[in-house]
Amino acid sequence: GRLGILVARHLKRLERVILGYLEVGDGPEEEARLGILEALRSTIEHAWPRMPCRLPVLLKGLLKMIWDVHTDQSSTPEPVKAALIQGATECLILLDRCSEGQVKVLLGGLYSSCTDTRLRQCLARVYEDT
């Protein structure tokens, strides 16, 4: 947040860091993942003109994290899992806004073939946002 638009200078390195943190769980409280989702949200808000070209990589990382959290059998409490999925969903919505609806296009087939209620709710929130 403090860097504002200056974050655009560091997007390439920041993208690698964000994706690395999204990939790996950090215990039951998932503080690092929750923090990196907040950092990603702030980055998208400040550097939104640069996000469409990063969309495929960020979309893949967010979807993988959502799936990993959803299928996680560890001791992570349900409220923490819900917060992670909520944060990732908010990032997907922001990415969709700054890419003029490309997230909805890319997720089209996934929503129609998804049978899991929780994941459908996440995807539905992205679709319902205008």
UniProtKB/TrEMBL annotation:
InterPro entries linked: Tti2
Which Gene Ontology cellular component terms are annotated? Answer: cytosol; nucleus; TTT Hsp90 cochaperone complex
Q: Which domain of life is it from?
A: Eukaryota
UniProt family annotation: Belongs to the TTI2 family.
Output this protein's name: TTI2 protein
Report the source organism: Baryphthengus martii
